[in-house]
């Protein structure tokens, strides 16, 4: 089982440098999971690409959003409710000074005994400190 965080998933969806390395982990045989906040954070990244960075058009932004929801709808990526992991995420956030929304993915990976896939150095570092196997995609 794999937990993919928003940074890695956004890298894939927006085709940022190294995006192709994420494809390996979106294999249904690996049972990729994420917490539901991934949809919000990824949608926000799409918005930033359009409004803040002017890298994509509105039409492209809407198409990327549709691609993201299709991957979830077709169960390529299983989203779980964040609240299931919120208490543990808060404890990790307090102990390691990392935002709660990042700690949700760490808590999910720990609970599912899964490998975390991330492009976030802070999450990678804390994953190591709490004994999680982690794949860092730069």
What would the average pLDDT be, to the nearest integer? 97
Number of domains: 1
- Taken from the alpha-carbon principal axes, the silhouette is globular
What's the story with the biggest beta sheet? 5 strands, parallel
Q: Helicity range of the residues? A: 55-70%
Just name the CATH architecture: 3-Layer(aba) Sandwich
Instruction: Kindly provide the radius of gyration, computed on alpha-carbon positions and rounded to a whole number of angstroms.
Output: 14 Å
Give a written overview of the molecule.
The chain is an alpha/beta fold and 138 residues long. It has a single domain (2-37, 76-136), classed as 5'-nuclease (Rossmann fold, 3-Layer(aba) Sandwich), CATH 3.40.50. Helices cover 56% and strands 12% of the residues. It is built from 7 helices and 5 strands. The protein has a 5-stranded parallel β-sheet with strand order 3-2-1-4-5, with helices on both faces. The two termini are 21 Å apart. The model has no long low-confidence stretch (mean pLDDT 97).
């Amino acid at each position: 089982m794999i937990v993919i965080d928003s940074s890695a998933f956004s890298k894939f969806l927006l085709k940022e440098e190294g995006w192709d390395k994420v494809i390996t982990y979106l294999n249904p045989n690996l049972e990729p999971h994420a917490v539901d906040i991934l949809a919000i954070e990824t949608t926000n990244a799409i918005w930033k690409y359009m409004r803040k960075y002017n890298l994509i058009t509105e039409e492209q932004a809407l198409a990327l959003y549709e691609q993201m929801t299709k991957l979830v709808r077709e169960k390529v990526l299983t989203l779980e409710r964040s609240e299931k992991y919120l208490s543990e995420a808060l404890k990790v956030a307090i102990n390691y000074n990392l935002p709660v929304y990042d700690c949700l993915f760490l808590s999910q990976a720990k609970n599912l005994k899964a490998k975390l896939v991330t492009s976030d150095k802070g999450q990678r570092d804390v994953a190591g400190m709490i004994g999680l196997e982690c794949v860092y995609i730069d």
